[in-house]
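User: Working on a comparison across species. This one is Response regulator from Sphingomonas glaciei. Can you predict its structure so I can line it up against the others?
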Amino acid sequence: MGAQPKRILVVEDEPFVRHDLCDFFEDRGFQVFAAGTADEALRIIEEQPAFGAVLTDIHTPGAIDGLRLAHMVKERHPPTIVVVASGVTSPDREALPEGAHFLPKPFNPRAVLRQFD
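Assistant: Here's the predicted structure for Response regulator from Sphingomonas glaciei:
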């Protein structure tokens, strides 16, 4: 991983799921930031240097949802790995930003790690 830890932003409105995901990535050497809404995630993105990855649930409360957040991240920081997840809906490939990945919930977080290979 080198001297600098990889940085990931986890956007999940379910506190237990968010906590488990954060623990998983921290245990693997990531610097982890967490948000319960896409609105909160945008504030974090504006305040922090670029993230290596953003993992977001589609259905988050607030003014924007995780799918819109994914598009905004890819527009502002195209190299960012973006993973969109949902247990409710499965978006069409055309609905995802270019280069983004979709994971149906529940998923193994190791699937996110594979995006770094």
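For your comparison, note: The beta strands are 7-11, 31-35, 53-57, 81-86, 101-104.

User: Helpful, thanks.
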